[in-house]
Structures are given as structure tokens and as C-alpha cells.
Batch of 4 targets.
Target 1
Amino acid sequence: MLGLQALLELSEAVVWADQRQVPGIIIEAGSARGGSGLVLAASRQQARAVYLYDTFEGIPPPTEADGQQALRRFEEIRSGRAGGIRKQAYYGYECNLLDRVRQSFAEYGMPIENSQIFLVPGLYQEALYPPDQVALAHLDCDWYESVKVCLERVVPRLAPGGRIVIDDYDYWVGCKRAVDEYFVNKRDEFEFVKRRCLHVIRQLDADALPHH
């Protein structure tokens, strides 16, 4: 669903964190069918736990902070008219999405019970409390309130050299607004790298920063 370039960026971010020995876990907020979570888990070169947070029951509604495009998109979803990527069915209409993600990991040789992978269902406001320092977080949660909560919970636990990859910064206005508001007084603490996604990296000394 993310496209090849975004998936490659996630894989490279995991490898980079491992090579630089950035401490901490991997987090994803917004896992859908689990494809990007699979990429994150499969790219590990050292033992790291991966926590996937999602309602696994469909996307929550946007608010006025997300603008008219998001409100129109949610009305399509709510009314049953939404289409998925490349003419596939929209994933949010699937039942038992949690079981679907478990099945996907098992099919690719990473049963979650044996692979340090944890699925955490629920709204981010209720469920997303990182249990450890965070090396890498992938935020693919679209709306203003969701992105805001994720940043408030993840950034304080982000390790030096840790990275947040924000999928929807250039697509959903609510996501961009939440990011810009959160980092308005913190920009000197982070490096901001625009690729297919926005990468926000907690600063180390100059020699430790990634080169792109």
C-alpha cells in the first residue's frame, strides 16, 4: 500500500539504526494489513522488538483540523464507497484484520510469537505507550489528532540518533499541521530529511548524523 520507495526507506532506516547501534525498539503506528510492519521486522540485523499499533478495526474519524479533503475521504469510507490501492478492496472493510496480520507474518516465516513482534490493538490515545526507548518509529496514521498523540508519546522516548518516518506529511494537511506544531520549538534538536516520506532524526554530534 505504501509503494516501493517508501518501503525501501523503511528498510534502509532499520539497517542504518542497526549499523549505528542506535538503542531501542521499533514502533509502527498504523499497520493496516501489516506489509510495512513485515518490512521493518525483516530488515532487522540485530534483536529488536517491533511493536505494531493499530485499531485493526478501521480508521477513526478525522476532525476539522484535518481539512475538507480528509473529511470527504472519511465520508467515502463510512458510506462504503472507498476503494483501496490499485483497485483492491479498501483494507478497512476487512474483518479480523488482527488475524490477517498474524497470518501474514507467519506466511513470511516470522510467526509473531517467536519473532519479538507485538501487535497492540486500540486507539493511540489509549494504547500507544512505548515500553522502552525507541530507535525507529514509522507513523502512518493520517489524521491530526492521531499524529499529534503519536509524536507526544514517541518523541520523548526517541533515542539519540533515533528516527521517526512520517508517511503522510506531504499528503494529509492534518498530519503536516501536527508535525509542524509539535516541532516548532524543537527544530534545533532534530534533523529533517525529505525523501518519499519525512524523516525526523534526533541529533547526535555532527559526525554521527546520516548522510543522504
Target 2
Amino acid sequence: MNELKQLNEAMDYIEANLFAVIDMKKVSLIAGCSQYHFKRMFTFLAGMPIGEYIRKRKLSSSAERLIKTDIKIIDLALELGYNSPDAFSKAFQQLHGFSPQHIRKEKVSIVSFSPLSFQLTIKGGKDMNVRIEQTIPFNLVGKMKKIHLQHLGVNPEVTEIFEMFKAEDFVYLKTLMNTKPSGILCASVYLGDSYDEGTELNQYVAVATTMNVDRTKWDVLSVNVKSWAVFTTIGDFPHTLQNTWSRIYTEWLPSSNYETVEGPTLLWNESANTSDVNFKSEIWVPVVLKQ
């Protein structure tokens, strides 16, 4: 698989430049995708943001250099990009549990954070129900609240957003719907590269429209995404939905001709009856064909 080969070549580049400047533009070029897509893919596949991975690899390798060479701690700190030995020592101790001076003097055990490589795992299981949809620019109009990411179960903070609406609000919003995707939507806008439990994101409950609205009453998000990969899920809520979300990034995207682009991810639910064992949802992921 060419994508897998390119991804591992990108990891080799990072490893070869741990004590130099790591050019993220070059990393994504080697991986054969945009920086945005690479960062998102890496986070889902590795379970941590690329920045955290690089930081841990640098600190792990620096401990080995302290033990095996006579490099000065201040020189090592500057080589790793820290502004001062104190900043380096603090980060070092957080990972290893000891200061650089203590490890060099006492030769205690260090935390080994090994280089990462990816391999393809063939999984048996269900096909993914996916289609590609094209849309025109539109606005998401509704209510927005900053919430915290929750991987499993129903997120009570999302429920709180629905409680912000009056019955007549939904009646009005439905009169605005004049473009795809239709229906009441949950839109997630991530504020960084982390997808760890508890990460903050902006969550909208809204409808898609091209009509003008009173922005003093409604939260409005402009969306200029042209293509979406739409995944239909049918099963118990929210387990089936969350399982599909994971498979999108670990199975479908690595083997498809598409990569993610900047924009909100959308969720449409067919009904409010989440107890239905055949609960139907759609996940809309902004994508573009790989160059």
C-alpha cells in the first residue's frame, strides 16, 4: 500500500531530524497529503497529536545522549529548541521522573519512548456505507456552545445545547433549510490537533441555509466545504456511531483516494428516539480528492 509506505517514510524523516528542524510541510509532502490531513490522521492512528509524539521522542533520545555522551545540558536544550536549560529540565523531568543532571550522575532507568511505525492490519467485519456529496457554500444557523470531547456514551453537554432551544426555535429553523445537508445537524469544530477525552471543541446544533438571519439571536458558522464523505450508520446509539467514527480514520481514509480538509464534521440523526436498536445517523466529513 503506497500510502502506508509514504506514512512510514514521513516517520523516518522525523526520526532523522529529531535534533534538527523538523519541517512539517516536508513531513506532509513525504506522506503525500496536506498538513491538515496528516495531523488529523496521525492523531487518530497514533492516539496523540504529532507535536506530542515529536516532543516525547526528543526527550527520550536526549536521555540516551546524556548517558552515552558528554554533551552539555545547555547545548542539548538549545539543540532541542528549548529557550533555556530550566524549560528543558522541566519537560525532561515530566517524562522521565528525574532531572537531566540526576540521570547523568546516577545512571538511573529512563523512560524509553520508541519510534513509531505503521503497519496495515486486515480486519474482518462489515462494509462501510459511504457516499460522496457535493454542496454549495452555506451557513450553519443555530446555537453554539463550547463543550468537551467524550468518546463513549451520550455527552450531557450536547444535551444542554438542545435545552437552549424553545419549541418555536426549531419550527423557525426548519423554515430556513434550503440546501444540503438537510435536517437538524450537530456540527463539531475542533480547536486543535488533539482528540483526547476532554478536549475542548465548539459544538453547534443548527441547520444549513443560504438565507440571511438575525446574527444577534443566532450563532452562525460559514461553511465553504465542497465535498463530503457521508457515512450512514444503523444500530444502537451511540455505540454504532462512535465505532463508525473510529473506523473512518483508521480504515476508510487510509485506503481511500480522499483526505480530510478544514471544516466542521456534521452529524444528522433520523429521529430523537435514541433507544431504537436500528437508530439511523449520518456522519458528514469534509474531504477532497488526493492530488
Target 3
Amino acid sequence: MTKKALAIREKTIFDGVFTKYFLKSLFSLWFKLAGWKTTSTEANGAGVAIAAPHTSNWDFPFALGAAILQDTKIYFSIKDSWCRIPVIGRFMMWLGAMPIDRSSKGKGQVELIKSFVEKQKDCRVFFLFTPEGTRGQSGKWKTGFYHVAEGAGIPIFLAKVDYRKKESGIFHSYNITGDKEEDIAAIQASYKSIYGKFPENQFPHYEGPLPALSDSDAVVMKALYTFKGVATRMEIAAKIKKKELSSAMLDFLVEKGFLEITESVDSEPSYRLTCAGKGCLLHLYPTLRAG
């Protein structure tokens, strides 16, 4: 006999009076006493959320606290067999477990999320993934989150628990371009400035806080992000509606590793945004669109 497919539970711990009043007050007090704060970026709608870097069990309560304080629901993947266990299964789904049937005839993760999102279009919902896959040292990311976002047609929310800044929450809503390698490289670069509880275990490796940049520097980098490829100084200046753009500013961004000089066009150098530059931009702006 075929088992009835399990759907994602609509009402979880994140709904109702218990969370709205008790848990929200509890986490608000805890964050205040511990000196923590939530990010200022508020991601609306549904999306795949990356939880990184993940080096400690303490990451979860800080991430949970930020989600509750920002009125966001979190769902996490689990084998559907766990959700079928009496009492335990119902409790797991109330916590936000998303039952995944990995059999050939089962409803896949993408289909499950797509059908749920269609019914919950206006909700702020995160489908949580930990790309490092472990709290210990990891030399790569699991990229299933990318395929889920692409298949379900939803953005990737970049979430962090930064122990140096004592800040937790979403810092960017990333709209994938379809170029997986380029997208993953840019996203990973943004995590190199986030300090995990045990930074020696995080991947990508911690490289220090974001450098100080002026508003003008950020605008130039943002303009260059919209070019599909490279651009000359004159093209960048035209994009930001300036008559001239100083080469000193571009040289500074090249020195910082945010821009790189490519082949010259008619003896004038062209510039391209590096992965480090893209990663920096993901912190400076809540959402970016190329092209």
C-alpha cells in the first residue's frame, strides 16, 4: 500500500501567541543582555536561506532568535520517515521540519517547496540549508541549495551569525543568474568577512572584516556589477552619470582586490569586478541585479 505523501505543515512554532509574545520577548531580552543585534536587511517573501559559517551548536539559537525577532518562519529538511513516527513526527513538523521522500516515486524537495510557496506567496519563509554540512572543518560546500532555488524559482537569502560583530540574520537576497560557478563564487566570497565562533573551522576561510569604503567607491562597484563582462573608465562614468571618474579611485579598488584590470581597449584599460568585489557588494546592498 502506497503511503500518503506528507506536505509541509503551514502552522509551526513560528505562528501563534507563543512565539509572538513569549519567545519574541525571551530572545529580545537575551540579545540585549548578550550585546547581540539582528541585521537591518529584511528579506520579504520565500527563499532558500544559507546558514553559514556553521562552526558551533550555538549558531542555531542565534539564527532562530533572529528569525523570530524578524517575524520569519524557518523550515529545515528531514527524511519523511522521521515525520511519520507517532508524536515525535508531529512535534518535528511543528518545529518546522520539511519531510523529504527520497524514493523514486516520492515528491521531491523542489516540488514540495514550489507547491508550498504558491500557497504562501506573501509569507516571509526561509528553507534553511547549511552548505558546509558539518560544524567541523570542511573544504567545500554542498550546493544542493542552489538547485532548489533554481528549480523552485526563488532567491537565495544569505544569512549569517557573526560572532565578532555580534550580529545575526539575513544580509542579502541573491537572485541567481543561472551561471552556477559564478554565483557560488560570489556568494562564498561574501562569507570570507564573517567571523564564526570557531573561525579556524569555517569555509571559506575567514580573511578579516570588510575594508572601509566610501559611498563613491560602492557606487562605482555597483555600476560595474551591472556590466556583463568588462567596462572602461568612460563607460563606468557614464553609468553613474559623471563627466569624469578619477583613475585614483579605480586604482584604489584594484589595490584592494575588488576590481581587476583586463585587456586595454584603444590604449584605455578596462575593468572587471572580482569575486571579492562581488562578495563585498552583497554586504553593502540588500539585493543586486546584473544587466
Target 4
Amino acid sequence: MIWDSYIQGFKSYLLLERSLSPHSIEAYMRDVSKLADFDQRHESSSGPLEIDQKSIEDFLHEIYNMGLDAKTQARILSGIKAFYKYLVLEGEIKNSPARQLEGPRLRRKLPDTLSYEEIQLILDSMDMSLPLAHRNKAIIETLYACGLRVTELVNFRLSFYYPEEKYIRVIGKNNKERIVPIADAAIKQIDYYLKHERCHLDIKKGHEDYVFLNRRGKQLTRVMIFHIVKSSTAQAGIEKTVSPHTFRHSFATHLVEGGANLRAVQDMLGHESITTTEIYTHVNTEFLRETILLYHPGSKGRQATSDLPS
């Protein structure tokens, strides 16, 4: 089939030049194969090099009518765009027939957050008689105080910790380094853990510089951080679905609600684009709306008279 050789070439490109995971490559293959099947079902099948924008639009209309959700439709179009970008790079075509196509608008889901009171409840409800309880409390404090990703937390090193200056170094995505202030409450818990729990561990070779260790003296895993957060939340009786990332979202939301500069929040979160950080302005807008409805006398008056005839 005329499509097969080009799809296989695209697969090699994704593997060798883009270094994508097998899972990602498989997803791209499925998406492009859907377009190939659509093209080959028609008598006027033109192949990947001759297909035009109208044909791709017809294909997108078909998958829309199949009832696929907007996220799936957007992903399929993204795969097709990547395929034709590859063909342009290879010199097989001059312009991509998908370049002007736009996918369905995706509604950005606002991140789940915890209130400051809920975070305090989690910290206060922790059973400090358990082994390494101060480590677990220090982990929760650090997640919230610094807005760290899970991987950033498990890779947090003693050589990145500057308690006297009240900041830490963080190695984020793509090995990008940033400096993040750390609150006194987190410093207090980390220091207690270092002096009273970590010092008693039999630390294994190669793990000496990691701050948070398991009871065998090795670096904690991401899974263990999720377990600590889940058990601590359950202990506090909070019924929300809470993950380590929830503390990162809460960190950012509370900063924006408090009036922090969005660029500063971007830097502390390690976002490449300010657009990613701007989602927290939407969270803040919702917070302001709820505040007005609750406390503004005009809003109360309108609610009280809403049943009156016009």
C-alpha cells in the first residue's frame, strides 16, 4: 500500500530523531493509520503526498460524527500534523495540507486545590509517633512551601538546600535549574528530620546526598510520595482526591490569590511559558466571584429579592 512506506518512515523518524517512547510512537501510528484507512476507503484515494486539506477536513468531520471526544479529536489532528511536518522535512511535499487546520477548542480544566486550612488540617492530623513521621511531615511542608513536582521532590539534594538563605535549588524539566524560596515551617520540619531521623538511617552508597530517604537508606520513589500524601489526606478525613501535584496547584493558587506577580509565580513553578501559569488567574477569578457573592451587600440584596416579580 502506498501509505505504508511513508508511515514506516515516520515511525523511524519518531524513534531515531525525536527519541519518543514506544507508547507515544504507537499512538502516532494509530492516528495516522486512521487517516490512511479513510483515504483508502474512497475511490478517489490519492495517497499521503496528494491528499489535500479538504480531504483531511472530511476525515475530521467523520471522526467527529463517530462521537469521539474533543480531546481525542485534537490528539488525532496533532498526530496528522506531525506526520505531514515529517514529510515536509523529508522534502516529499512542499507544504503540509494540515497546516491551517485547527482542532476543537479544549476546555482547560482548573486544577484541584486545597485551602490553607485543609493543608494545616493534614499536617496537624499526622501521627507523629510513627516511624519517619517527621520525614513525611517535611515532605508535605516542602511540596506546599515550594510548589515542587514529584520528581523534583524525590531528587531534592542536601547540596541544593540553603536553609540560612531560605531557598533551595531545583532541577526541573529538561534539566532546567531554578531557585525557589522555602518557608520557615518547611525548614523547621526538614531540619528536625535531618537531625533526629535521617541521621539514624544506614544510608546506602550513592544515596548520601538525597534529602528524603526510605527506611533502608535509599532515595524515595515517586510511588512512595503518592502513598504518603494519600495516607496523610485520609488521616485528616479530607474526601477530595489529593495527589502530590495538588500541593503544587495550591501553592500557585494561594500566591495568585494573595496578589503575587504572575511572572514570579511562573519562575517559582518552572513553567516555560507564562500561558501555563495563567490558568491560576482563572482560579483566582473564580475565587473572586465566590467572594463577591458571599460578602458583597449588593449581591446579598439581589439574591434576597430574586423571587420578586418584575
